[in-house]
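Worked Example 4.2. Read the sequence first, then its structure tokens.
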Amino acid sequence: MKKRFMIVAAAILLAPGFGAGLANAAPAAPQQEDEHSRFSEEDRAAFTDAKIAGLKAGLKLTPAQEKNWPAVEAAIRDNAKARAARWAEWRENAKEPEGQRNVIEMLQRHAKMLETCAGELSKLSNAAKPLYDSLDDSQKRRFGMLLHAIGKHHGDHWGHHWKSEADAGE
């Protein structure tokens, strides 16, 4: 159960709304870049708000569980801000002409990004643990499915195929 939670949480961090994908290692196709460049900071904030609201609404928290929600929400928002900063940095690096890119520097940037994502994932899992531990079985199942749903499209987009028990029957 913990492993599946960590995988789903990783998908969230890697999703454009919450984390960075492997795209930091290679330039995006023009269509992908155009899609992301259409999102303003206000758009990103609105989508983050919607994802958080959807997660919270789907959990149907009790008043006692609500006490653990602010830490989860703060971690998600912090990760979203950090992801947006990484995306902006990646876009700047992608402007560099392909022939002038240093492979070692790209590997070092990618390693740094993965370390950063690991730290953010750790913060999110630490923030979510008290809430998750307070959930009943149906809420835990929904928590996993809702996190999966938020990150599924973007996880597949970046070349990852995140699976949950819900996907096992598909």
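Now turn to a second chain, presented in exactly the same format:
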Amino acid sequence: MKKTYLLLAAISVILMMPVLSSCAGRNSTLKVISYNIRMGAADDGDNSWELRKEASTAMIEEQQPDIFGLQEAYDYQVKYLEETCPQYAAIGVGRDDGVSLGEHMEIYYLKDKYNLKEWGTYWLSPTPDSVSFGWDAACRRTATWCLLESKDGKRHFYYVNTHLDHVGVEARINGLALIVSRIADMNKEGWPMVLTGDFNVQQDDPCLLALDGKMLSARATAKKTDDKGSYNGWGKTSQAIDYIFYSGFSKAVSFETLDRQYAGKPFISDHYPVVAVLKF
């Protein structure tokens, strides 16, 4: 009887090994998406939000990221994803009033995997703690940030999501410098850090020098990656201007530009989402 019990116990352990390995792997990595969803108020004809919104849900459901950041999201787009992807909690404010008006730099995270410890939004301007324009920017620009803790309390990481100005060169340079400064001030513990966003510049732009020696590009450092353009302009262009930067992780496992169709729509947005898997 004792030998039979031990044999059954050994078989149970062997059968559980793939599951335990899978869980361990999932807990040791972070899957991140940066996604410019294209503002719903735009007159995009056949690519209007109401005609393509199901594609955003389909992409999230397929990818199942741990966390993702949206750019250009209006409040009704934020709410739509909250309703159709209820496994995620959302944080963010509208850039034009600090509550709901205008575009949100929204962050979504898996509710059953992480606890929200802190979060906030600031404006990319000389007066970052109030609703404001920055330097030569054409629009108000913001960064939303959060500190998350795994449910078991063993891991913490910061996440920052932003959208740099599409016109103001000075606004991009100073805005990113402000983000880098705020990151240094907030992360005294040296925990892993993720920065995502539409930076409106390609990889050789001088404004990205602010990140040299401080954060790494997942696109540039991942073992498995691509060099596809993330801004598609509804099929009219191809520019790699959406980014996932990181620090405090051991490596970037993969980076991908999600340029395939979702929900049968030609384009999910005028930007393709970008996704990275980071290893703690």
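Notes for the reader: The chain has one domain: 30-279. The longest helix spans residues 2-27.
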